[in-house]
Amino acid sequence: MENLIKPVDYAKKMGISRQAVYAKIKKGILPSRNVGGKIYIVLESEAPVGGEKTAAEPDEVQPLLAAKDETIAVLKETIRDLKETNQMITSTLRSEVELLKEAFSEMKTLYAARIEQMNNPEEALPLEEVVAEEAGEIEDSEEAWVSLEEFLVEQGIHKKKLRERFTKKAKKLYKKGDSAVEKKNKGDYRLKAEKAVEILLELKGP
User: Rounded to whole angstroms, how far apart are CA atoms 108 and 114?
Assistant: First the structure.
């Protein structure tokens, strides 16, 4: 004798999905019968009923469990790789942002000096050349010093207020004993080029 069971009930009994049951039927692994237009699985009469499991069930379930564990392991490894990649990308972006900030700061300084020269069309010694003197690009040590008045003229600084502030700052540094400022005859002053540029940038502000 034969027992008939619905695919959905067989799936619950075996602990597998309905799709797996229908796949087995299609492949001929499970015997089936069409009764009144509905598919039933044919079970032998001696087959256990209810919630009992057959001896063949562990062999069928074990591969599914192994496949599940393998899939979980692969997913965990993928997530770990994604986290590491994300950290590398974040670190790289932070480094590039810092480099861009430094480049922008340098460009801002040069741009400010260029605007000053455009506002004063007279011949003016570029600010970067004054810095280059102190950096050693011009070897003559005498050129490392510049007269206060000469520096103001070279930089095209003609505004009375700015000239007075520059002179006042130089005198103040001299009184404090700053070695980068010297007093010449007739109350004139001379400064190291680097110090002159430093004062000018400080007075102009960012």
Answer: 10
Boundary residue ending a domain (101, 119, 137): 119
Q: Which two tokens stand for residue 62?
A: 């074990």
Distance CA 119, CA 116 (A): 5
DSSP category for residue 155: T
CA 145/CA 197 separation, integer angstroms: 11
113 is in which domain, residue-wise? Answer: 55-119
Instruction: Tell me: do 45 and 104 sit in the same domain.
Output: no
Size of the chain, expressed as the number of residues it contains:
206
| Number of domain units in the chain | 3
pTM of the predicted model over 0.70: no
Last residue of a domain, one of 96, 119, 142: 119
For 109-158, what is each residue's pLDDT tens digit? Answer: 887 777 776 666 554 555 555 555 545 544 444 458 988 888 888 888 88
In the chain, helix, strand, coil percent, each to 5?
A: 65, 10, 25
